[in-house]
Specification:
Elements lengths: L1 H8 E3 L8 E3 L20 H46 L5 H16 L4 E10 L3 E10 L9 E9 L18
Antiparallel strand pairs: 1-2, 3-4, 4-5
Helix pairs in contact: 2-3
Length: about 170
């Protein structure tokens, strides 16, 4: 009769091969020593979650801050390029103030909440002109200033004759 006792505690799975059996009941939930699990690990995952959540949130905030800073750099570069186009195309006249106002207004037009404190500084001479745009990216992480600086420019667009050297675009008196 011992074989009947064993067969009553074992169940045959449908579709299983002959001799392949699985135990029914609650014997699999006990520890290897045959008793209950020790209670020393209870609540460990809650404690780990409570300790790691602020770190995870800080990492997420740094990723968002980096994305905003990177976008502010693109806004500053676009503003510097707009100012440089004005500076390079204006051979005569007050190109510095025109390039400065164009760069600052362009930065405010395309990114008023992304970059603040925009300052444009046109530099250069008769042959090459540049516009530097500086500002601060919007801040998600406090106690840190995220400064942005971009520069654009190139040679002035003017006719350079072959005679008399042809190297300067300054208007001749």
């Amino acid at each position: 009769m011992p074989s009947q006792a064993v067969s009553s505690s074992l169940d045959q799975r449908p579709g299983a091969a002959q001799g392949e059996m699985m135990r029914s009941g609650r014997e699999g939930t006990k520890s290897a020593a045959g008793g209950r699990k020790p209670r020393g690990d209870r609540g460990a995952s809650s404690l780990e979650l409570a300790l790691l959540t602020p770190v995870l949130l800080l990492v997420i905030l740094f990723v968002v801050q980096f994305a905003l800073w990177y976008h502010a750099r693109h806004v500053a570069l676009a503003a510097a390029q707009a100012g440089a186009r004005v500076a390079r195309g204006d051979v005569t006249g007050d190109w510095r103030s025109a390039a400065k106002s164009k760069a600052e207004s362009y930065a405010q037009q395309i990114g008023p909440s992304i970059i603040t404190g925009v300052v444009a500084n046109p530099t250069g001479g008769a042959d090459e002109r540049f516009v530097d745009v500086e500002g601060d990216a919007v801040t998600v992480i406090p106690f840190r200033r995220w400064h942005v600086h971009q520069r654009a420019g190139g040679p002035t667009e003017c006719f350079r004759p072959d005679r008399d050297g042809g190297v300067s675009c300054e208007p001749r008196p």
